[in-house]
Amino acid sequence: MFSPRGPSLRELMVQALSSVERGYDLLAPTFDHTPFRTPDVILDATADALRPLGPFGRGLDVCCGTGAAMRVLTPLCREATTGVDFSAGMLARARAAHPDAGWVQADVRALPFAGAFDLAVSFGALGHFLPAERLALFSEVHRALRPGGLFAFPIGAPPPVTSARYWALLGFDAVMRVRNAVWRPPFVMYYGTCPLSAVRDDLEAAGFSVTTVPLTALGRREDGGPRCRLVLARRT
Question: Is the pTM of this model over 0.90?
């Protein structure tokens, strides 16, 4: 599937019927050759938007996967960079690709840090948390940052209801809800559960002040709005 070096259809099916942690352990060797890995164009657009706000001290990648966000953190941070994820398989790939960074296995809803970082980023992870879990996640990131620290992540605009993408994502979420209703362990991954308004409310409830900037390099929608915004949540 996806490319000659990507996972097979059978491997994807086994992964989808596993828990989130086990599924990513299984997918880790081929993850970078799938569409699930954040594209470099999004990473670069994020780095460009953050550069005028830096440089930063210590950096943290929340739900780091195979470490793709080091492309953003390493040039922006003058001190150590760290990635945290609960998948040992993904961390092994990250450690091999970026041996100079620190890698920590932990549930991000209980981060083993307090007041340690100046910049935290996250890419493509929010869909792995149910709406009721989001505040706990944001509160842990808030605790991990130093006063004045910044939590940044891109969030896409919803596709138009008339687009094929809208119905594809809606269909994916519906399939996942059915799968989780009839199969254990659950695999939490939804595309429609984190609209910007709800994410902003939870960030503010966790103690952040929130602004956004358009990532214009990623294009605009037909209505003129940006396809993607970078959320900038500051620990006040």
Answer: yes
